[in-house]
Every structure is written in structure tokens, then in C-alpha cells.
């Protein structure tokens, strides 16, 4: 009798898998797929809840991003459950022949190793990812995302996992296993897409519970962007005050002041600020920094009134909350950095008015004064000469180099927005930073940030930031007897 081609290749039917065992195995496969998928979704949500910050921010996913991760979790779950199914189907019966036992043993050991190797690999990747995110801080998810830029990594991962699960079958049964390989691929895909459409956890419910305490989601807070900012040395000495618009159209809304999520009327603001200041220990009150989260379109008339009330309450260390220019997407995340300024302290001491008058007069002694008035968003007056705002950098740079004893008097235009005001002081601060950097490289041969404390002190004395902001409230205060 002629031999048929491939007669040496064993048939899959030689494994003698009963119909009952096959049906039970399919049921177990579906059950474990659902269990593993639910577990992965639970891990994702638990990891997401660890990103909740003091400002009630949480790592949020878009609907497309959630569905993509659901697909990945579903494929991982069904492939891993399929490996358990194969182990169950080919467990060696005691009366099996030696030849069949060898084949079963080969497949059994391969899938057992595959399962535990996957668990080990997945755990290591998860721990490494957790350490990476933890060391980067809560702002990590605003600066990095796997989706959609790196979604191909997950696609390749799924392909490798699935092909690895069929190594032993394809090696032993060769072409005769392709039919089952394709059937498995189809089954895994169908079940995975079915699972991905199941929302095991209501992530929107968690979002609503947390974000309802977040002013960024309850009010309009669109901050300015800046490449100049510094971090807070002690977060426990930082207080937050929000200058925002209510939800809705900005033109028809009046700006609001929020302290500890409570709206404060302008008439009650000074008392509220004084009570807020007294919540710190007396020894720490002079070190308090007020982090001002300001909508960039707010008129400076409103901002100046708030700043004057803060000055009257003895809160003179301010920091404008900004969005780092390298993270423009993080509009709803208050990074622990800000643009630091100081205003006169009108609240401490028995004679704050006389103390301020003396400080103001001393600041002008032996100084060459330059008056800056902001006309509109594109023009300023510099000692009564109209110039473009874009040319202020060069003017500041040349003036400070030529006149070391300079003093800029900046008269704030209350009709313009906070963003326009911030542009002026940002340009001035950038000039000071650049001058210090140039001098540091020329004299010390290293960057300013690498200098020691004494060298930095020398730099501060060489290029002090002499600019006095004069709002109508401050001018009226100076003229008062």
C-alpha cells in the first residue's frame, strides 16, 4: 500500500479530546477571559485613583483611549485564558500511550511555562512602570501618553503573545494545526471585541466624585503659559486663591474669587484673607506664598483690587500659577510651580503706611527712573515714547546694561487683561535671567544654575530686578495722608 504524504506528522485528533471536555474547556476559557479582563480593568482604575492630587485632579482618559486599552486588556485576557484552556484539554490521562504522553507533555510544559513566564514578565513591567510614573510625579500623565503615539507597541505585544501560545502545536502538528490556529485567532478576536465593549467599572462616576471639588472643572480657569517658573520649596506654606469666571460666556460673567472652594465677595475678601493667613502658625506667616490661579482674560482692574487686599492682609509673597510652555495640554493641572513676585506688605507692623512710604522713597534714591505705561496689547510708552511691546526686550536689555542704577516704574493699565500685563513682567524677568546667565558664563565659566550660594548672591547684586508695579489702588494709597 502506498504511503500518503505527511503520514509521519501526527493528527491533532490523536490527542483524544472528548466532546464533553472540549465544551467544559470552552466554558472555562470564557470564564477566565472575563475574570482576567475584569482584573486588568480594576488594576487600571486603581492605578488611576493613585494619581488623585491635593487639587482633586485625576488621570482622565478619552473614550477612544479607554476603548483602546479595553481592547488590549481583552486580547491579553483571552490569550492567557486560551493557554489555560489548552493546558486543561491536554492534561495527560494515566492510561495514555507513551507516544501520546510525550506529545501531551511537550504541549503541557510549553503552556505551563508560557503562563508563568507571562505572569512574571507582566509583573516586572507593571512594577517598572509604577516606579517610573511614581518618580516622575502626578504630572507625568500630562507630558506622556502611550495612546495614540505608541499604540503600535501594544499591537506588537498582542501578536507576540498569541503566536507564542501556538509554538508547540505548530511545531508538533505542523500544517495540520493551521486550521485550528486560524479558528483560534477568529475566536480570540470575537471574544476580545465583545469584552472590550463591556465597561466593568464606571470611570465617569469616579471622575465626577473627584472633579466636583476641582475649580478647574467647575469654573473657567485658563492660565497663561510661561517658560519662566520656579518650584515651591515648601508646599505646606503655599495657599491657593482662584480668580476665575463662572461657567458660560466670559463677556456676560463677572469674575469671582475662590478661597478653599468658597466664593468670596470683594467686600469680605480682606477678612477672609486675614483668617486664611491666621490658619498658619505665627512663625510661618511671613513665609506664606499665595499661589494665584488667574484666568488670563480677567481685567487687571479686578486683579489689582485682589492684590491690594492681599497686601493689606499681610500676604505679600505671590506666585502666578502658569502652564509650562513644554506642557500646553495641561490646562487643568496646577503644577507646583509659579512665577514669583513680591508686593508691598501693608498688613504687618503698627505703621504699615509709613513703612511702605519709606520703602518706596528709599527705592527711588539715587536711581535713574524709567516710566513704562501699557497703552494696549501691542504698544507701550517708555518715558513718553511710544514703542511696540515686542521691542521691550531689547530696550530693557540695553537700559540695564547702560544704567546699573535703574528703576522701572510700571503703571498698569487696568483696562487690559492679565495676559497683557503678564507679558510685560515676563519680558523683564527674561532679560534679568539672560543677563545673569551671560555674566555667569563670562566670569565663572558655568551656567547660573550651577553657581554656589555666594556666587548667586553676587549675581543678584549685579543684576537686581528693580521694577515697581503701580496700580491705581497703590497710587491712591501713596497719595493718602
Q: Structural class of the helix and strand makeup? A: alpha/beta
Please, how many domains?
3
The major β-sheet equals: 8 strands, mixed
C-alpha Rg (nearest Å): 33 Å
**N- to C-terminal separation?**
124 Å
The low-confidence runs, each spanning 5 or more residues with pLDDT under 50, are 6-14
Shape: elongated
Q: How much beta, percentage-wise?
A: 5-15%
Q: What oligomeric state do the depicted chains represent?
A: single chain
Describe the structure.
The protein contains 16 helices and 15 strands. It is of the alpha/beta class and 481 residues long. It has three domains: 12-210, no CATH class; 218-347, no CATH class; 349-481, Nucleotidyltransferase, domain 5 (2-Layer Sandwich). The strands form three sheets. Strands 1, 3, 4, 5, 6, 7, 8 and 10 form an eight-stranded mixed beta sheet that branches. It has a five-stranded mixed beta sheet with strand order 13-12-11-14-15. Helix 10 crosses helix 11. The longest helix is centred in the first third of the chain and has 39 residues, at 98-136. The chain is elongated and about 100 Å long. The termini are far apart.
Amino acid at each position: 500500500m502506498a504511503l500518503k504524504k505527511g503520514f509521519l506528522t501526527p493528527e491533532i485528533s490523536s490527542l483524544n479530546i472528548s466532546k464533553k471536555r472540549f465544551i467544559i474547556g470552552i466554558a472555562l476559557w470564557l470564564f477566565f477571559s472575563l475574570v482576567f479582563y475584569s482584573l486588568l480593568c480594576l488594576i487600571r482604575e486603581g492605578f488611576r485613583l493613585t494619581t488623585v492630587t491635593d487639587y482633586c485632579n485625576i488621570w482622565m482618559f478619552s473614550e477612544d483611549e479607554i476603548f483602546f486599552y479595553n481592547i488590549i486588556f481583552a486580547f491579553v485576557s483571552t490569550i492567557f485564558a486560551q493557554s489555560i484552556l489548552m493546558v486543561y484539554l491536554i492534561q495527560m490521562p494515566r492510561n495514555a500511550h507513551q507516544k501520546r504522553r510525550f506529545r501531551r507533555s511537550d504541549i503541557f510544559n510549553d503552556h505551563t511555562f508560557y503562563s508563568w513566564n507571562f505572569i512574571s514578565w507582566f509583573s516586572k513591567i507593571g512594577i517598572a512602570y509604577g516606579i517610573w510614573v511614581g518618580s516622575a510625579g502626578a504630572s507625568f500623565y500630562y507630558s506622556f501618553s502611550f495612546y495614540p503615539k505608541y499604540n503600535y507597541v501594544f499591537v506588537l505585544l498582542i501578536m507576540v503573545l498569541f503566536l507564542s501560545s501556538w509554538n508547540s502545536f505548530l511545531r508538533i502538528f505542523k500544517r495540520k494545526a493551521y486550521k485550528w490556529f486560524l479558528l483560534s485567532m477568529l475566536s480570540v478576536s470575537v471574544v476580545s471585541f465583545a469584552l472590550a465593549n463591556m465597561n466593568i467599572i464606571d470611570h465617569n462616576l469616579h471622575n465626577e466624585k473627584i472633579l466636583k471639588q476641582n475649580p478647574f472643572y467647575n469654573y473657567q480657569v485658563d492660565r497663561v503659559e510661561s517658560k519662566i517658573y520656579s518650584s515651591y520649596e515648601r508646599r505646606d506654606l503655599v495657599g491657593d486663591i482662584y480668580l476665575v469666571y463662572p461657567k458660560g460666556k466670559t463677556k456676560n460673567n463677572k469674575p469671582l474669587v475662590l478661597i478653599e472652594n468658597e466664593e468670596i465677595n470683594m467686600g469680605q475678601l480682606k477678612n477672609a484673607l486675614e483668617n486664611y493667613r491666621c490658619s498658619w502658625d505665627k512663625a510661618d506667616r511671613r513665609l506664606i506664598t499665595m499661589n494665584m490661579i488667574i484666568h488670563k482674560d480677567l481685567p487687571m482692574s479686578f486683579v489689582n483690587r485682589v492684590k491690594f487686599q492681599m497686601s493689606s492682609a499681610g500676604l505679600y509673597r505671590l506666585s502666578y500659577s502658569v502652564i509650562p510652555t513644554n506642557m500646553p495640554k495641561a490646562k487643568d493641572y496646577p503644577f507646583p510651580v509659579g512665577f514669583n513676585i513680591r508686593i508691598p506688605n501693608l498688613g504687618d507692623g503698627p505703621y504699615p503706611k509709613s513703612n511702605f512710604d519709606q520703602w518706596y522713597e528709599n527705592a527711588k534714591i539715587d536711581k535713574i527712573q524709567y516710566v513704562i505705561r501699557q497703552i494696549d496689547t501691542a504698544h507701550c510708552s517708555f518715558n513718553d515714547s511710544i514703542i511696540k511691546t515686542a521691542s521691550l526686550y531689547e530696550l530693557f536689555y540695553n537700559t540695564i546694561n547702560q544704567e546699573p542704577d535703574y528703576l522701572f516704574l510700571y503703571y498698569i493699565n487696568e483696562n487690559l487683561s492679565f495676559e497683557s500685563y503678564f507679558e510685560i513682567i515676563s519680558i523683564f524677568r527674561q532679560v534679568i535671567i539672560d543677563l545673569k546667565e551671560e555674566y555667569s558664563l563670562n566670569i565663572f565659566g558655568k551656567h547660573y544654575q550651577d553657581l554656589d550660594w555666594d556666587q548667586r548672591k553676587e549675581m543678584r547684586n549685579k543684576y537686581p530686578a528693580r521694577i515697581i508695579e503701580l496700580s491705581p489702588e497703590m497710587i491712591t494709597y501713596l497719595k493718602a495722608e
